[in-house]
Amino acid sequence: MDRAEAPAGRLPVVVVGAGAMGGEWLRMLARSAFAEPVGVVDLDVDLATRTVASIGLTDAAVGSSLADVVERSGARAVINVTVPQAHRVVNEEAMRAGLPVLCEKPLAPTVAEALRQVALADLTGGLLMASQSRRYFRHLAAFRDATASLGALGAVHAQFFHEDHEPGFREQMAHPLLVDMSVHHFDMLRYLTADEPVSVRCASWNPPWSWFAGDAAATATFDLASGARFVYSGSRCTPGLQTSWNADWHIYAERGAAHWDGDHLVEADAVGVAVGDGVEVGDTSEGIEGALEEFVGAVATGRTPQNEVRTNVMTLAMVEGAIRSSERGDDQVVLAELLEESLAQAIVDEKSDDVVELLRSWPSAAEAIATPPWGTAPQPVLHASGGAR
Predict the structure, then answer these.
(1) Are the C-beta atoms of 260 and 138 separated by less than 8 Å?
(2) Model confidence pTM above 0.85
(3) Cα(130)–Cα(124) distance, integer angstroms
(4) Around Cβ 320, how many Cβ atoms within 10 Å?
């Protein structure tokens, strides 16, 4: 199924989580040609009821039990919009029930917890996809095309500076920038190039005027496999000269340079590379709508989507590596070592015997995530997103 073409019938889905982000998903689903919200699950049933009523989803089943709501609604897939700490529990219940899952980022708080979900996906044969919604942005796709014309990479720079007031769990996080926003930018780096990160040095801190409890600012330098560098700096509490939510990007390479302002300006300074302001790159959907359409397409066709659980692990490794480096005083963290340490921790933490047995059978974490076994058709050519988180 082509992502730009709606299926014959909308996929019936249950949304787990009725908070602010859950409401955003439900509003999008209410108008979607690809999926239909037939149920909402939340521990706070009153909140779920109010959210459903406010959107006009009068026929949607509501409750605190995923199994109960799925049974009453006839849902055939789950969209997990709970807080990150609850992601694995919801994903496991859905996948053991035979339901494919589209899970909001981050897929897990740690790489160890993500690896446990990789093993569960192997065991159940089910689809678990992370919604890294900022991959689905037309101008990011144009920037990637320009980058591909520049030859060998020298350096990639991204800057994110914003004044972000979001009362709730984000303002209480230990690393609100790295975990909740930089995860997007790190994932976009992996979308832009085929050059995977190898190691990282990072420093994070909280400016004295910050309204966040944890570190709302950071700088990080990643060594890439080719020898190039990814240089990142960001803050969630900068009141002036703010960048796009997608960050501001510069790429320097063998045959020239390219820039994307994170919104609509893509430009290149290189012979034979013609891009510019307002570049047209198609009519594909952006943001969470783009992630949904790819998920529905994967369910319908069996093809492996972007950010299937295995491919998303390295994005989480970038985040956790940056946090480890910062907490160790800007020491270098090698991501391959982090992966194997995380596999050992996953074996210790896991309580299900079948998952533990599979984790123990892996030659290494790197080999386990190298080739996604889910899906049989070729991976689609996709665009990326600047929509809401």
Answers:
(1) no
(2) yes
(3) 17
(4) 26
Give me the phi and psi of 79, to 5 degrees please: -115, 115
CA 144 to chain centre: 18
* Of residues 344, 316, 351, the one with CA closest to residue 89: 351
CB 303 within 8 A of CB 378: yes
Tell me which DSSP letter residue 157 carries: E
Edge-to-edge order in the sheet of strand 248-253 = 266-269, 256-260, 248-253, 153-161, 229-235, 217-224, 197-205, 333-334
Q: How many residues does the chain have?
A: 389
Tell which phi-psi region holds residue 79, choosing left (phi > 0), alpha (psi between -120 and 50) or beta: beta
Question: In 97-164, which residue ranges form alpha helices assigned H by DSSP?
Answer: 111-124, 138-148
Q: Report d(CA 25, CA 102) in Å as an integer.
A: 11
User: What three-state secondary structure class fits 221?
Assistant: strand
Residue type, 332: Q
> Which domains are present in the chain?
1-136+284-310+336-389 (3.40.50.720), 139-269 (3.30.360.10)
Task: Provide the 10 A C-beta neighbour count for residue 47.
Answer: 17
Name 71's Cβ contacts closer than 8 Å, sequence gap at least 6: none
pLDDT tens per residue across all 389 residues of the chain: 444 454 568 999 999 999 989 999 999 999 999 999 999 999 999 999 999 999 999 899 999 999 999 999 999 999 999 988 899 999 999 999 999 999 999 899 999 999 999 999 999 999 999 999 888 888 999 999 999 999 999 999 999 999 988 777 888 889 999 999 999 999 999 999 989 999 999 999 999 999 999 999 999 999 999 999 999 999 999 999 999 999 999 999 999 999 999 999 999 999 887 775 434 445 567 889 999 999 999 999 999 998 899 999 999 999 999 999 999 987 999 999 999 999 999 999 999 999 999 999 999 999 999 877 676 443 333 333 333 33
